[in-house]
Write a structure and sequence with these properties.
By secondary structure, this protein is mainly alpha-helical. The chain has one domain. It has 21 helices and four strands. It has a two-stranded antiparallel sheet with strand order 1-4. Strands 2-3 form a two-stranded antiparallel sheet. α13 crosses α14 and α18 packs antiparallel against α19.
């Protein structure tokens, strides 16, 4: 037999995905693909719940493009990289799009998706030129963790708000300071939507405690069933439950944000989303890679450029179809945990997302109270990076956060808290970068700051001073 000949009896799928080499079978990969889909499928309901907050977009529209980009990009990931890493719109960046770009900054959704598309194109170019790896390495580990935790707090607050558990009491406008007074408060726990959310949250917690892989999915289903059972008109069936997908959002993007926000703000918004995308993806690759056996003896992900390239293209694709930035999913570890090893896993996952398209109108029956528990749990899970061991990484940066050291604690605390308190991811990242550089300078350690950190911190400082320096109103 020739050296490169396939073993006798090996079919096309086994050869293409190198199943024997990876120690797996077609049956195992299909089961793993189904498992990954079950765990990731909550995004079909949660993404519309997030992006339709102001009524500008329709639930069926968003559910359609969510399934479309998740299906197509997961299949491409499987075929191009042969890695079991699923892709779908990211829970975190979609909140940035909805509540920061549209809610706080006043962009339309086509303009906000133009920002996402721009970020995806830029990040793709950075992968192709090798700069993405440099950017990942130049940001200190503590700030990477802080960004993840800050977004986790942001999503947690959003989940509690959508559940009705937290209420914002608005106050009066104070002319002297130019601000509104108000406060967050605990809502009386006596409404049916809150009960529905608590049912979903309890189901998720119990199932996660028993290591059920699709706990979030089943929690949403349980809460939706409860919404139909309880009085109070928490939800209802859509008038046309099987009307099929709506592709009207595909290509509905605008670059008018450059004129509306100005060049400085536009650049910083793109950088902020890009940084969030960077660190989320790398954490996912390492997390999935460590469980699947993809990492080498140094803990590196061989041929990482391939999944990084697909992930970057997915970000642009998510913006183009108005689904928000699509990214690699840490939930892919569910498929790996049942034996999945090859790209066939996420090809199956992608096909299942596409097969869900005829049924997307049913998502309209899932109320915000049913998806809120998913936001709460995912937000909490994003904070798990705080539990990582102390020590230094290969670049001499600390892995853990020393809260007794102001060089760590101050920029980390600002990053984590400014995000949820201002409902603005950009503000949180900017506060962390600027304070990190300032403290290093104050302690005579300016030489330890990467030149790129100086540049980005300088841009953010100008951004924070824009009202004073430029008379900006945005």
């Amino acid at each position: 037999m020739a050296a490169n000949a396939a073993p006798a009896g090996e079919n096309f799928l086994e050869r293409f995905f190198k199943l024997r080499e990876l120690g797996t079978t077609i049956q195992t990969e299909i089961i793993a693909g189904l498992t990954t889909f079950m765990v990731m499928s909550y995004i079909i309901a949660v993404n519309p719940a997030t992006l339709t907050f102001n009524g500008e977009l329709g639930v069926t529209q968003v559910a359609t493009v969510t399934c479309l980009v998740a299906g197509v990009m997961s299949i491409i990931m499987g075929l191009y990289t042969n890695r079991a890493i699923g892709i779908a719109p990211g829970l975190g960046i979609n909140a940035i799009v909805a509540y920061t770009l549209v809610g706080s900054m006043g962009l339309s959704f086509p303009e906000a998706m133009g920002v996402v598309f721009t970020e995806g194109v830029v990040i793709t170019l950075l992968v192709l030129t090798g700069i993405r790896k440099y950017v990942l390495e130049m940001v200190p580990s503590i700030l990477k963790k802080a960004i993840s935790v800050g977004i986790g707090f942001f999503i947690l607050l959003l989940g509690l708000t959508n559940a009705g558990v937290i209420t914002y009491h608005s106050g009066d406008f104070t002319a002297e300071s130019g601000t509104y007074t108000g406060r967050l408060d605990l809502t009386p726990l006596n409404t049916w939507p809150i009960l529905v959310s608590m049912v979903g949250l309890i189901v998720i917690i119990v199932l996660m405690a028993r290591n059920v892989k699709a706990a979030i999915f089943w929690g949403i289903i349980a809460a939706t069933v409860a919404a139909f059972v309880v009085p109070g008109n928490v939800t209802s069936m859509p008038s046309e439950p099987f009307k099929g997908p709506d592709f009207s959002l595909v290509g509905d993007i605008s670059f008018g944000y450059w004129g509306k926000l100005g060049v400085l703000t536009s650049v910083l918004v793109v950088i902020s989303i890009m940084l969030s995308d960077f660190f989320d993806t790398m954490g996912t690759l390492i997390g999935v890679g460590s469980q699947a056996g993809y990492l080498d003896e140094n803990g590196d992900f061989p041929d990482a450029e391939k999944p990084l390239l697909v992930d970057s293209v997915a970000a642009a694709a998510g913006g183009f179809v108005s689904a928000s930035s699509a990214t690699s999913y840490i939930e892919s570890t569910a498929g790996v945990s049942v034996g999945g090893r090859s790209g066939l896993v996420v090809v199956v996952t992608g096909l299942l997302f596409l097969l869900a398209l005829p049924f997307v109108a049913l998502v309209e029956a899932i109320p915000g109270a049913a998806t809120a528990p998913a936001l709460i749990v995912v937000g909490l899970l994003m904070m798990s990076v705080l539990a990582e061991d102390e020590g230094v990484d290969r670049h001499g940066q600390k892995r853990g956060i020393d809260f007794s050291n102001m060089e760590d604690s101050f920029p980390v605390a600002l990053t984590m808290l400014v995000m949820p308190f201002t409902f603005n991811i950009t503000y949180g990242i900017g506060a962390g970068f600027v304070s990190y550089v300032l403290i290093k300078v104050a302690r005579g350690k300016a030489a330890q700051v990467n030149p790129a950190m100086w540049a980005i911190a300088g841009l953010f400082l100008l951004y924070f001073l824009r009202w004073t320096l430029f008379g900006a109103e945005f």
